[in-house]
Design goal:
single chain; 242 residues; alpha/beta; three-stranded antiparallel β-sheet; 7 helices; 10 strands; NagB/RpiA_transferase-like; EC 3.1.1.31; 6-phosphogluconolactonase; 6-phosphogluconolactonase_DevB
Length: 242
């Protein structure tokens, strides 16, 4: 596992999205080029999606791509405890931005199935999905980041960011509303070959510096996001590490 963080800086979010989505298409093409491509060795890419401004812009930019989505399996880094139809749903936003506009089998999309009720069944179900559908981990985990350094629903100094074994946890105390969520953990993130953080905005510069300098992950959860072979901080100039 590489602890080195590559930083790629862009003038604005539009340029960042243009270059990162191009790199994404190249990565998927490379996986699809061999019947044994990808970390799971079956020529199918496993990708974890993220929400947020940059994450949704990233997805929307892929609508016109020529990716063979039948050979891509999509997962979600976290989800709020709401139905997919709710405007706060990460899956719902991803569907509106990309998934409803491409030819991808519904069985290739792995949502959490939350509805505002008890979250533990969703945690158990998602753990089972990961063991069956991505037993060797992910080819790519996309991440957004908050100004305090949170990724997925892993916030500083919370039980979720301290989890060191389970791949999926229920979060009941998110400091950012809504408080109830289900999230992949740092152990799950670290099962990815590549981790890409998509970051923009001056308010995130301090957190970006923490990532680049591999600060303490309990203080800055994003600093604990490490890919097995590659970790890239895709960042706009206003958010670039100082």
């Amino acid at each position: 596992m590489s602890n080195t963080v590559k930083t790629k800086t862009f003038a604005d979010l539009e340029q960042l999205i243009d270059v990162s989505t191009s790199a994404f298409q190249t990565l998927i093409s490379e996986i699809h080029s061999s019947p044994t491509g990808g970390v799971n060795g079956d020529g199918t890419a496993r990708v974890v999606l993220t929400g947020g401004t940059a994450g949704i812009r990233f997805l929307a930019a892929l609508v016109s791509s020529d990716i063979d989505w039948s050979r891509v399996k999509l997962f979600f880094g976290d989800e709020r405890n709401v139905a997919v139809s709710h405007p706060d749903s990460n899956e719902g936003q991803a569907r509106a931005a990309l998934l409803d506009h491409i030819d991808i089998p519904e069985g290739n999309i792995f949502g959490y199935g939350l509805d505002g009720g008890t979250m533990e069944p969703a945690v158990t179900r998602y753990e089972a999905h990961l063991k069956v559908e991505a037993p060797e981990g992910f080819d790519l985990h996309l991440l957004g980041m908050g100004g305090e350094g949170h990724i997925n629903s892993l916030f500083p100094h919370t039980p979720a960011v301290r989890e060191d074994a389970a791949l999926v946890v229920a979060v009941t105390d998110s400091p950012k509303p809504p408080p109830e969520r289900v999230s992949l953990t740092l152990p799950a993130v670290r099962k990815a070959q590549k981790v890409w953080l998509l970051v923009s905005g001056a308010e995130k510069a301090e957190a970006a510096s923490a990532v680049a300098n591999r600060a303490e992950y309990l203080d800055w959860p994003a600093a604990g996001a490490v890919g097995k072979e590659e970790t890239i901080l895709w960042v706009t100039e206003d958010a670039a590490p100082r």
